[in-house]
Design goal:
This protein is mainly alpha-helical. 67% of the residues lie in helices and 11% in strands. GO terms for molecular function: DNA-binding transcription factor activity.
Length: 106
Amino acid sequence: MRRDIFQAIADPTRRAIIVLIAIQGMTPNALAEHFDTSRQAISKHLRILTECELIKSEHKGREIYYLLEIDKMKEIDKWLEQFRKIWETRFSQLDDLLLTMKNIKK
């Protein structure tokens, strides 16, 4: 089943998993140590993130490491960029207004 990446990142635990493996690849057991939940629950989150291609698994010996798929994260960044531009424009307008108000008071 193909899931939507935004559905996947809507969950705070999955976002926290992404943050953890962005730093380095981690095994499910290592990830589970960071949460107050079962190893099975973490595996379910990993399965959803894998189905959305936000992470990938890599076998190293007997261990499975989960790694971030940077290209898929760019898809999220591209969608957020439109909002970033709006916010930056509005903050710039607010800065200009505050500077104008400050100069008027002088």
